[in-house]
Amino acid sequence: MNKRSELHHVVIVGGGAGGLELATSLGNSVGRKEQARVTLIDASLTHVWKPLLHEVAAGSLDSSSNEVNYRVHAKRHHFEFQLGRMQGLNREEKQVVVEPLFDESGVVVVESRTITYDTLVIAVGSTANDFGTPGAAENCIFLDSLEQARKFHRHLLNSYLKAEYDAEKKQKHSLDIAIIGAGATGVELAAELHLASQELPVYGLSHLKEKDVHISVIEAADRILPALPEHLSSAATRELKQLNINVLAGQRVVNISPSDIEFANGERLAATIKVWAAGIKAPEFLTRLDGLETNRINQLVVRQDLQTTYDRNIFAFGDCASCPQPGKEHPVPPRAQAAHQQAATLVKSIKLRLINKQAIPYVYQDRGSLISFSRYSAVGNLMGNLTGKNLMVEGRIARLFYISLYRMHQIALHGFFRTSLIWLGDKINKALHPRLKLH
């Protein structure tokens, strides 16, 4: 038996923003010093920051140039990577069960296997919650993964191409896009799609005019961005209307057909492309993990130190976990900044576990909210409850702050020097390539 097999084994399931940051930080510290063995499990080979998926969908971001290869990253940062999807859990034997791997023809490449852990961290994120709305699963596109974002982009280009040739033949050619859910993803996607409607005619699709593309954002609550302060909602509504985007608040969707959307009041909205961006839930398999406690949206229930309620050797964080906030009715909100903060807390807690000390509690710090309207503008408030006051920002300054969020994620993964090189490469690529991905 070699030395590494005797080390405390930290297994992290899920390579999203929080999971990959945690694996990177632990690998750079306890992994590099051989104080522990760190393994990351993910169903994909590459990582793309989830808040960027709406840009991939609209074509304003080339995902290929923004992907992080897990194997390469693991080699550079002293942790191991296992490709696969978590299927089950044996808490008594401390084993994670991983699904078989199949090739494109459905042939098994790797059989189902188990990975033994000493400390398990589950960070599998969330998926969209269609609340059982009839027709949603069959007729809407979801943006939960990179593959779904790429699928949407291909569908968008094909829809534009069809509308372009219909326009050339003087046939009916309007393109109606409906986004159900006016949270951050829905609002930002609407702005990116408006940009696409301006850019595509530049590259030859000139018969389909900007005025022929109708984008609607639908929200069941009485205002868009209902989870954010009202002044941000008002500012966002103003920005969307300036972009000629139809804002439909207070409209609950009850049925979705291939051609239109039906509201609770009986009205209908025609839509060629329908995107579901309302609500979240954790993956359903979490409800079957050897008796771990979950809530009504499948999230693992955790204590304030992010340990699961029934097992001190298993942690969960990010969108897949319900973590209490002391003195508050609602748990920590499912936001990227929360996952980033929780990853930093878990680094400290896991290091303490290695010397038989208790994990430390996580306290959510609201650093504010920023909403991007593509290259046009951004709005937001900064600092949040750090100072008890909110600083409202708009326009170019808000846009710079928004961009900096992604750079901070890159710094957490690659360090400042490598992120600087990535930033320089992005600048060069923007000069060499079209502003919109056209394939």
TrEMBL record:
Keywords: FAD, Flavoprotein, NAD, Oxidoreductase. The keyword Cell membrane does not apply. Residues 9-343 form the FAD/NAD(P)-binding domain. Transmembrane segments: none annotated. The keyword Oxidoreductase applies. PANTHER family: NADH DEHYDROGENASE, TYPE II NADH:QUINONE OXIDOREDUCTASE. Belongs to the NADH dehydrogenase family. This is NAD(P)/FAD-dependent oxidoreductase. It comes from Alkalimarinus alittae.
